[in-house]
Write a structure and sequence with these properties.
mainly beta, 2 domains, elongated
Length: about 180
Amino acid sequence: MTDKAEEEKLACPSCGKPLTEDEGGWHCECGFRAYRTMRGTEITPDELMKIFAGQGSELSFTSKAGHPYKQKLKLSDDKKKLLFDIHSEDTGLNCPKCGKPVLEYEKEFSCEDHDFRCWKNTRGHLITRDELAAILEGKCGELGFTSKAGKPYKGTLKLSADKTGLDFAFIDRKKDGDTK
């Protein structure tokens, strides 16, 4: 522990009681939990105090794919856990699985609980909010996509059967009597 954290016991941001520290991090009987290590980065007691005060600094993390990135941490709305402070906007759409709002992030659309999630750039096509609304209503028309080789093709997107994402479908170009 650092000197500052040793001088004053960390208080739970949810209920105000002293936090219990173990080798995995900090927790409280009210349900608060903060892990000592998140995505390869150690969270110090001093940094935790700054996060509790809403003044957390940008920290260096490592993605699951091994890529480094910087991100701030913040408290969840119920003050029970730490979250990545990622900018998002409400799309005005609801999750087809859980009913919570679908949020738009830099690279994806996702509901608050991540029950539904899809990449904004799908097969070379950047999905707009209006297109996502049509897809969720089952009314998606023909869209233009780009193959890995750079060739354009047409297709459509629909909600997956389990309502957690999107499925792609080629558009059948065969006409009645066409055998090709």
